[in-house]
């Protein structure tokens, strides 16, 4: 009788080397097309934005916004998750990766793309007539037409239901009056999506630039989002034809659904700002010497780097999870609030901690850290303040409305 054979031990694959840039191996979650899109946007930002962004930020302007918008259109980055009308039809994850790479360059560049695609184009694509879509979307997707989105007012930010901008019927026309504030792209936009109160409820209107009574003075003296065009929208008896109204929505559901789409991009984008700041701190810690050795060799510095890496890559993982849910049609607005609240808050903390590692150099525009930190102060409160997102989650958790 022969002796029983000994089963061979299962082969164990050797894990890849530890990658400080991707410590959790999150790239394994991405498809080859995802990686190609991400790398294309990263290369574009490195070539076209990073060499100039400190100067633009210091000057408080984005002088080449029209050129950059056309180039972004050529990349397919404008309205990229929309389908048809010249839009790329990309996945939500691919759009998120694009936002991450753009905000790693500067929040102002990501804001340009978010407002164009997730607010202005999304509103037209979802709620517009076929004629409106054909008129505006191809040019906007190509970057030939810039759009803006007018919801926030000087006295009504977190509570848009109290808006004072109103539209009245006059025969077959509409006449708009009111003010909108803190509008990205406003003074360079070819079309503004303006939300106004009507006798029928809140409606969206497409206001072409150059309409009599419509102006968009630029807002200056900003200490955040300085490389971004921010404007007021002024509407004084702006007369529009009947077909200027978005026909497929009435009420706040319209603008709020657009904001939810844009907030999703912030969930990713904020991690780009955090990543750029973390990478600057990590490189600095490896090379800056004090007491005879690199400061990265001291325990307190390593503790900071480890904690930042944890929050950065947890945030990217959260963004990826929300993106997969969006692609599956399962993403809820409360989950977007979850991501926006967590990721922007953690991104600011990463920037602030990075600044401490760089010491005095951290406040210099030779490094990206302070620029990202000040930009994120705006990202923290636009498209829903911290408190609003906390209350959205509080209501979802308890079933009790604490807004009023």
UniProtKB/TrEMBL annotation:
UniProtKB keywords: FAD, Flavoprotein, Oxidoreductase, Transit peptide
Region spans: Disordered: 1-25
Cofactor(s) for this UniProt protein: FAD
InterPro entries: Acyl-CoA_Oxase/DH_mid-dom, Acyl-CoA_Oxase/DH_mid-dom_sf, AcylCo_DH-like_C, AcylCo_DH/oxidase_C, AcylCoA_DH/ox_N, AcylCoA_DH/ox_N_sf, AcylCoA_DH/oxidase_NM_dom_sf, Glutaryl-CoA_DH_mitochondrial
Boundaries of every Acyl-CoA dehydrogenase/oxidase N-terminal domain copy: 32-144
Chain ranges of the Acyl-CoA dehydrogenase/oxidase C-terminal domain: 251-397
One example GO MF annotation: glutaryl-CoA dehydrogenase activity
Composition bias, Low complexity: 1-12
SUPFAM superfamilies: Acyl-CoA dehydrogenase C-terminal domain-like, Acyl-CoA dehydrogenase NM domain-like
Pfam families, per the entry: Acyl-CoA_dh_1 (PF00441), Acyl-CoA_dh_M (PF02770), Acyl-CoA_dh_N (PF02771)
Ranges where the Acyl-CoA oxidase/dehydrogenase middle domain occurs: 148-238
GO biological process, one term: fatty-acyl-CoA biosynthetic process
Similarity comment text for this entry: Belongs to the acyl-CoA dehydrogenase family.
Official protein name in the record: Acyl-CoA dehydrogenase
Organism: Streptomyces scopuliridis RB72
């Amino acid at each position: 009788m022969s002796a029983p054979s000994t089963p061979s031990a299962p082969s164990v694959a050797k894990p890849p080397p530890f990658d400080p840039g991707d410590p959790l191996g999150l790239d394994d979650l991405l498809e080859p097309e995802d990686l190609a899109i991400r790398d294309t946007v990263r290369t574009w930002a490195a070539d076209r934005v990073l060499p100039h962004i400190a100067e633009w930020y210091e000057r408080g302007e984005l002088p080449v916004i029209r050129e950059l918008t056309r180039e972004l259109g050529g990349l397919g980055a404008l309205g990229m998750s929309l389908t048809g009308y010249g839009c790329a039809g990309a996945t939500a994850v691919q759009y998120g990766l694009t936002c991450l790479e753009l905000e790693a360059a500067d929040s102002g560049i990501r804001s340009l793309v978010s407002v164009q695609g997730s607010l202005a184009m999304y509103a037209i694509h979802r709620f517009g007539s076929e004629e409106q879509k054909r008129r505006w979307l191809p040019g906007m997707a190509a970057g030939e037409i810039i759009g803006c989105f007018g919801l926030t007012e000087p006295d009504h930010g977190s509570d848009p239901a109290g808006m004072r901008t109103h539209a009245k019927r006059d025969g077959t026309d509409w006449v708009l009056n009111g003010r909108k504030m803190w509008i990205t792209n406003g003074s360079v936009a070819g079309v503004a999506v303006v939300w106004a109160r009507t006798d029928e409820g809140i409606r969206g209107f497409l206001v072409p630039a150059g309409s009599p009574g419509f102006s968009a003075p630029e807002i200056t003296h900003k200490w955040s989002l300085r490389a971004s065009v921010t404007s007021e929208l002024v509407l004084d008896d702006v007369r529009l034809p009947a077909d200027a109204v978005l026909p497929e929505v009435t009420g706040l559901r319209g603008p709020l659904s657009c904001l939810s789409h844009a907030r999703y991009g912030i969930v990713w984008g904020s991690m780009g700002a955090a990543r750029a700041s973390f990478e600057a701190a990590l490189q600095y810690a490896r090379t800056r010497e004090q007491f005879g050795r690199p400061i990265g060799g001291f325990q307190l510095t390593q503790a900071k780097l480890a904690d930042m890496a944890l929050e950065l890559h947890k945030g990217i993982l959260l963004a990826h999870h929300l993106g997969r849910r969006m692609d599956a049609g399962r993403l809820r607005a409360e989950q977007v609030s979850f991501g926006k609240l967590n990721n922007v808050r953690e991104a600011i903390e990463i920037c602030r901690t990075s600044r401490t590692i760089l010491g005095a150099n951290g406040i210099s525009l030779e490094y990206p850290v302070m620029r990202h930190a000040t930009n994120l102060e705006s990202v923290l409160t636009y498209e829903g303040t911290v408190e609003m997102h906390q209350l959205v989650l509080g209501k979802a958790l308890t079933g009790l409305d604490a807004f009023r």
